[in-house]
């Protein structure tokens, strides 16, 4: 028990170390490389408060992207987090809830992997602890800590695998199937894509393990119990997920595929042997920029670790016998399968896409695979490598079977492989402070019940302030306002081809404001622009627009002065209210031609 506590404290300490920049000033600091995703998850956490206070649909809302709304089932709605942590959101705001969940995710992933490995695979708790800490703070998961509350929920995989392995317990098929069904129903809202990967990896492992001549008798004996338990799991999970799955696949504002290019978000083979830019190796000048962005650096295990894993597999295979050898082989198969899937439809090497086709090209249009980003399959390799490290350390710590020189050599190899990938803290920067116009509720004077209000520019992933202001208002409760646009995944133009895209389909007026904010471009506004704006503002039902004193972009403040010039030219002179500029909008009338 004391060792369990020690591992838990160590995991929590590492998680706080990684996220400490946000903890220093949670209301002022924001993740520097992914402000959009943090704003989205803070919005979802506040929406949980709104659901509990005012009711509504957990999987669809028109508060954002009015009048069409957003299909939250087709996005990462983290509904369970939003509900469970609603009291904290009310008490401290979504900013604190976000960093709390992020920290607990990282620590929990390391600790639960430790418990899983200690229970199912190794005798030595030290071996399980080393591998568990690797799984929780592997470069890929630290990378996803840049804004992703879904992908940092790495503890989900060992929990699901734990109960999957328990399904063969005789006499407990009903209980085990029931528990796994409830877990799958809850985890779907937290990390649907990760749950899919876990199920796929578990299936590959069990099939490979069961088909071995050595383990086939054991698998055949357990099959009736496992099938009965899986039947219960299917019924329970199906009942819980009937509505969410309907909304995901057939609800309003749903879509097929994703808003991201799968060929762009495919793993570069060279990245497996490179180091992340947020690792100790990067401090020594050995970091790599092969990832498509800092949040999707999903592998980056480094050459020393990859060599250690290969050497470990060879040693384990030679020393293992019977079922242990089959387990090593099945884990290896899972690793190879997911490594190939992560490379996407064509081989990329050291930043260059080749013409060499890969297996993913055959399945990229299939349901579920068409919504996945190939490089994220590399996250399964974290669990695979963690298992290999645990088995290797467990073998080496057995002094009766391993010569002392071999133990020393492998211990040095562990240090040489793991120290360079030790994570650096997340980068952070300032966020725009909440305007008094919003915080004091002055906005209510300008927007009727059920009305629409927007900051300038309209909310989008690269300019998410408007979404934040709505989130903070939801967290406080009371009357709410609607916003146009927002950062989410939705259908492309009219959803005609069922393809997904990031945020709403842009209208002319969106781009007018966004171009000024992002690039400082001052458009010479014409009456044609005003005519389009009248139609757009009426379409959104906007009652008022406001310009806060600071506008945050993906890398810092945006061009507020240019935005004010364009908005004033288009809409006329604003009112100065509290600390913002406000334009009242009469739908269908404003802006007036000049």
From TrEMBL:
Membrane-spanning parts: 72-91, 98-116, 122-142, 149-165, 177-209, 221-243, 297-317, 326-344, 375-397, 409-428
DUF6311 domain location is 58-389
Superkingdom, taxonomy of origin: Bacteria
Give the keywords, sorted: Membrane, Transferase, Transmembrane, Transmembrane helix
What is the protein's species of origin?
Answer: Paractinoplanes toevensis
UniProt name for this protein: Glycosyl transferase
**Family annotation (InterPro entries):** DUF6311
| Molecular function via GO | transferase activity
């Amino acid at each position: 028990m004391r060792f369990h506590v020690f591992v838990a404290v160590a995991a929590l300490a590492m998680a706080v170390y990684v996220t400490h920049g946000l903890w220093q000033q949670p209301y002022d600091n924001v993740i520097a490389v992914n402000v959009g995703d943090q704003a989205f998850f803070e919005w979802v956490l506040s929406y949980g408060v709104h659901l509990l206070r005012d009711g509504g649909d957990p999987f669809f809302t028109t508060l954002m992207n009015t009048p069409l709304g957003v299909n939250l089932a087709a996005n990462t709605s983290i509904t369970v987090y939003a509900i469970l942590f609603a009291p904290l959101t009310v008490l401290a705001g979504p900013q604190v809830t976000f960093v709390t969940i992020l920290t607990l995710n990282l620590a929990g992933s390391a600790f639960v992997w430790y418990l899983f490995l200690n229970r199912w695979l190794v005798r030595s708790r030290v071996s399980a602890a080393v591998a568990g800490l690797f799984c929780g703070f592997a470069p890929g998961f630290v990378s996803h800590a840049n804004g992703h509350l879904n992908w940092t929920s790495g503890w989900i995989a060992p929990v699901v695998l734990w109960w999957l392995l328990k399904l063969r317990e005789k006499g407990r098929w009903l209980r085990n199937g029931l528990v796994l069904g409830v877990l799958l129903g809850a985890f779907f809202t937290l990390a649907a894509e990760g749950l899919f990967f876990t199920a796929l990896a578990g299936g590959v492992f069990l099939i490979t393990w069961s088909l071995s001549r050595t383990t086939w008798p054991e698998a055949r004996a357990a099959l009736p119990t496992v099938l009965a338990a899986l039947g219960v799991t299917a019924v329970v999970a199906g009942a819980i997920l009937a509505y969410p799955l309907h909304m995901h696949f057939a609800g309003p504002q749903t879509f097929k595929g994703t808003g991201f290019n799968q060929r762009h978000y495919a793993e570069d083979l060279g990245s497996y042997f490179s180091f992340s830019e947020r690792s100790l190796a990067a401090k020594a000048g050995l970091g790599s920029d092969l990832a498509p962005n800092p949040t999707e650096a999903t592998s980056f295990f480094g050459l020393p670790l990859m060599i250690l894993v290969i050497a470990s597999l060879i040693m384990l295979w030679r020393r293992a016998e019977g079922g242990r050898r089959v387990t090593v082989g099945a884990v290896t198969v899972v690793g190879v399968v997911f490594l190939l899937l992560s490379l996407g439809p064509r081989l990329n090497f050291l930043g260059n896409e080749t013409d060499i086709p890969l297996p993913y090209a055959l399945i990229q249009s299939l349901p579920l695979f068409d919504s996945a980003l190939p490089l994220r399959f590399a996250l399964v390799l974290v669990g695979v490598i963690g298992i290999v490290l645990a088995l290797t350390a467990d073998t080496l710590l057995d002094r009766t079977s391993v010569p002392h020189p071999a133990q020393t050599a492998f211990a040095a190899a562990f240090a040489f492989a793991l120290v360079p990938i030790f994570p650096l803290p997340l980068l952070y920067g300032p966020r725009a402070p909440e305007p008094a116009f919003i915080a004091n509720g002055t906005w209510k004077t300008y927007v009727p019940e059920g009305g629409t209000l927007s900051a300038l520019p309209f909310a989008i992933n690269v300019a998410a302030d408007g979404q934040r202001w709505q989130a903070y208002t939801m967290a406080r409760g009371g009357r709410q306002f609607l916003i146009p646009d927002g950062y989410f995944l939705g259908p492309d133009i009219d959803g005609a081809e069922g393809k997904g895209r990031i945020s709403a389909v842009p209208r002319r007026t969106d781009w007018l404001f966004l171009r000024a904010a992002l690039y400082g471009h001052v458009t010479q506004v014409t009456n044609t622009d005003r005519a389009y704006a009248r139609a757009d503002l009426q379409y959104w039902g906007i009652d008022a627009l406001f310009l806060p004193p600071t506008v945050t972009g993906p890398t810092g403040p945006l061009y507020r002065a240019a935005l004010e010039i364009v908005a004033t030219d288009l809409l006329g002179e604003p009112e100065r209210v509290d600390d913002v500029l406000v334009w009242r909008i009469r739908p269908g009338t404003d802006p007036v031609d000049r």
